[in-house]
Amino acid sequence: MSNGPLAGARRRLLVVEDDPVINQAVSDRFVAEGYDVARAWDGPGAVAACAEHRPDAVVLDVMLPGFDGHEVCRRIQVDRPVPVLMLTARAEESDLLVGLGVGADDYLIKPFRMRELVARVSALLRRVDRAAALARGEVLQVGDLRVDVPARRVWRGETEVHLTPTELDLLVCLAAAPGAVVTREKLLAEVWGWDGATGTRTVDSHVKGLRAKVGPGVVRTAHGVGYALETDAPGTAP
């Protein structure tokens, strides 16, 4: 199995927010989602924490003591490019453009739903992962299942499996954390881009098609929750 960003390692997240209640709530939610979370409460602390923890993504409030989130974003991007989602209480287009101009990848306007924040960060990491995979020609290997991400081709053993684009995206999402259950809601957000959607039948129907093509024992159902890609599936091609 590859050791790249899609290989299923716990993701590191830095949460920067001067309001202690919001900081705690956001951090707790991401910990519950399976992230390793570091925290900071002001501009200088954010830059130092980013250098120390080298997070995979940063959730960054704009209004901070010391210096603001725009300056934080500018400084951390000089050290090492890192995906940034900015939190702002201002919805004016000019303010949002400033954030994007200093290196932010996305923004969310306060007040926000926690589920939307999680989905945005997850989608941001997915986009970064896919771009990185294409850049380095990543091939994912889980058991006897092999996924050539840039070529968008899949093999089970020596037999090539022909998937639809959505089925392949679904397989790559599951392969990001082999053995771990991915909820239907997360699959909807990451594969279809449906934040907060509840169209679980859409997921179920595509999983059914994926199973029919990759063969038995590969995709496990966690009833009432979601699906997982098995790491010890039988080593016979369909």
UniProtKB/TrEMBL annotation:
Gene Ontology molecular function terms on file: phosphorelay response regulator activity; transcription cis-regulatory region binding
Entries under Pfam families matching the protein: Response_reg, Trans_reg_C
PROSITE patterns for the chain: OMPR_PHOB, RESPONSE_REGULATORY
Chain ranges of the Response regulatory domain: 12-125
SUPFAM superfamilies, per database record: C-terminal effector domain of the bipartite response regulators (SSF46894), CheY-like (SSF52172)
Keyword Transcription regulation listed: yes
Keyword annotations of the record: DNA-binding, Phosphoprotein, Transcription, Transcription regulation, Two-component regulatory system
Known DNA-binding region: 137-231
Record has Phosphoprotein as a keyword: yes
GO cellular component terms, A-Z: cytosol; protein-DNA complex
CDD domains: REC_OmpR, trans_reg_C
Domain OmpR/PhoB-type: 137-231
Residues the record lists as 4-aspartylphosphate modifications: 61
UniProt GO BP: regulation of DNA-templated transcription
Record InterPro entries: CheY-like_superfamily (IPR011006), OmpR/PhoB-type_DNA-bd (IPR001867), Sig_transdc_resp-reg_C-effctor (IPR016032), Sig_transdc_resp-reg_receiver (IPR001789), WalR-like (IPR039420), WH-like_DNA-bd_sf (IPR036388)
SMART domains: REC, Trans_reg_C
Gene3D superfamilies assigned: 3.40.50.2300, 6.10.250.690, Winged helix-like DNA-binding domain superfamily/Winged helix DNA-binding domain
PANTHER family: DNA-BINDING DUAL TRANSCRIPTIONAL REGULATOR OMPR, REGULATOR OF RPOS
Protein name (Swiss-Prot/TrEMBL): DNA-binding response OmpR family regulator
